[in-house]
Amino acid sequence: MSELPLLLLPGTLCDERVFAPLIDRLAGREMILGDMTGAGTTPAMAEKILSLAPPRFAVAGFSLGGIVALEMFAQASDRIDRIALIDTTARPDPEANAAVRRGTVARSREAGGASYIEDAWPLLVAPVNAERAELRALLVDMAERGGASILDSQSEVAIHRADSRPRLKDIAVPALVLCGAQDRVCPPELHREMADLIPDATLAVIPDAGHFALIENPDAVAAHVRAWLAAPATSSNSPPT
After folding, report:
1. For the chain, how long is the longest CA-to-CA vector?
2. Which of 8, 36, 160, 211 is 20 to 30 Å from the Cα of 15, by its Cα?
3. Is the pLDDT of residue 133 over 90?
4. CA quadruple 27, 30, 34, 35: dihedral, nearest 10
């Protein structure tokens, strides 16, 4: 069987640059960036991305992208060969978060997209990376490029999502659950929870990394992603011959 494409789903106000270090380290593999715009709920976003995706693929979702990847698996598990969940969560959004998220959108409309990163910066990367100006500049630039309108719709996607934990037992494909050891947005305990509920999941906790493990410690992330991609597909989810 030929190698399946890898669908990459970025997080809130992120673009292809959040995956650039991983793409560089997986040179030669077909990769597709999913469009995380154009829908206002997680089910609608998953349906939209599935409508544009190849018939069968691997998927790696970062943060909000991981939330959408879980919904995609719930909607079309027969099309997904394997799944990687990176710095994300399977839990529903707490009810109180809706007002906080919408307030952040309002501030972004007034102060610009950079405010989204500047306000949250201490939570986004590991302390060892807090003074890395190039990381901060990258996140600010992605947020400014995205803007308040995309933040608004992606915030609604985050708010309107299911509790995916009861569905994790149904993931019978190679699964990688990966996070930064100092992720304060989606802490390691949330990833251990997912890994415990997914049959035969691999848990990887990346040192010297926070929520943006993909760009904070890309060598370590790529090593785990490479091993996940090389794992044999489970017989129950293999395509018919």
Report:
1. 56
2. 160
3. yes
4. 90
